[in-house]
Amino acid sequence: MDSSECHRKKVAVIGGGLVGSLNACFLAKRNFQVDVYEAREDIRVAKFTRGRSINLALSYRGRQALKAIGLEDQIVSQGVPMRARMIHSLSGKKSAIPYGTKSQYILSISRENLNKDLLNAVEKYSNAKVHFGHRLLKCNLEEGTITVLGPDNVPKDVTCDLTVGCDGAYSTVRTHLMKKPRFDYSQQYIPHGYIELTIPPKNGDYAMEPNYLHIWPRNTFMMIALPNMNKSFTCTLFMPFEEFEKLLTGSDVLDFFQKHFPDSIPLIGAQALAQDYFLLPAQPMISIKCSSFHFKSHCVLMGDAAHAIVPFFGQGMNAVSSFSLGICLPEFSRFRIPDDHAISDLSMYNYIEMRAHVNSRWFIFQKNIERVLHCIMPSTFIPLYTMVTFSRIRYHEAVLRWHWQKKVINRGLFFFGSLITIGGYYLLVHYMSLRPLDHLRRPWNWIIYFQKTGSISLITPGNH
């Protein structure tokens, strides 16, 4: 499709969040006429911003997308590098688990600031416009029209060649697609919710080591803390909703933290902890899968609208993909669905790993084996986290490769374990074969020696 044809195409992007604004930049860059409809007011001027505030972990995939629209350096300069997980045990002991090599790291960045920068980037294109306070009411995809409700509360019909649904996990665009034949959809709420707390700066500096993602794993729940540029940490507590419901007073909260996260209390502050815990109720987390991501050539779903995932692999924003209308939408669905389902499953897996396995000696042993093998064979053996976070290997291919590598490691450990066992048995038999009946003769010799001398020697008679 040449630029002149693209120029005649009108695209309506529903949602001005991270996914919507990023894709608006890609589309505008290719000379489409782009209109972004965002239900919220402009977050750049809003006094209070609603929505998720969990910090983002920006990794290689996300950086490549930002690089394509010329924003990588600007965003990276606003982030704090995190090179490892710092595990806080219940005893207060801390231990680091590197993410990759010494040169590899992920960046903790502000979701809100990133969204503002992306909106600014959209508005630099003369062929793109963002309409704030415009909520999608309905889609008539076959006719190529949508109906939006603006601040004047008057419904307005808009004609477009393509509707791009970037309106999040509770997508209105997806709701319309669900009414179409052969559209598969499933959702799963995990039993855990989350609340956010803050670890403030201490004496003008970070209260903990800043270049780490700090984790307090406690089997059925956990807490994580990500550094901010202002020297604070955004601290997020994840646990089952029934556990949140048990904590009714500030005293309950302090007792709970004293039992499970004692070293975090002086970091957060007892008074702030008892108050901030109740500022907002625990928020749910949902995982969504659907198929297909498109409807004919009229509509496509992107981001959480297509594949909402839980946040434990830090790939939500990094998994965003741009697309070209030069590639037919069915091919886009076919290509993306296996990867988006794979990262959804991996995010669920990583939640269990982070809260239940990172303190395990066996887990740390396996991680060390992976690092050694990666150093010896960097192109043959690549740890799962490295494939997901520091490369652009397709997610579903990373999963397949990960399973194969686990088989190789397990069989290798079994082989070497067998060799050690056989070798130990051989040495034992070899030693015993030198004096096969010595252990039976020795007590009888002691008796004879005692009868002759009247005393017992620990040296076997005849062998000294």
User: First CA to last CA: what distance?
Assistant: 96 Å
Shape: globular
| Strand order in the sheet with the most strands | 6-5-14-15-16-13-17
Radius of gyration: 30 Å
Structure annotation, total helices: 16
Features:
single chain, 464 residues, alpha/beta, 6-stranded mixed beta sheet, 41% helix, disordered C terminus
Could you provide a short overview of the structure?
With 464 residues, the chain is an alpha/beta fold. It is 41% helix and 23% strand.
How does this model look, in words?
The protein is α/β, with parallel strands linked by helices and 464 residues long. It is built from 16 helices and 19 strands. A 7-stranded mixed sheet has the order 6-5-14-15-16-13-17. A 6-stranded mixed sheet has the order 8-2-1-12-19-18. Strands 3-7-4 form a 3-stranded antiparallel sheet. Strand 10 (145-149) and strand 11 (155-159) form a beta hairpin. Residues 1-7 and 458-464 have low confidence and may be disordered.
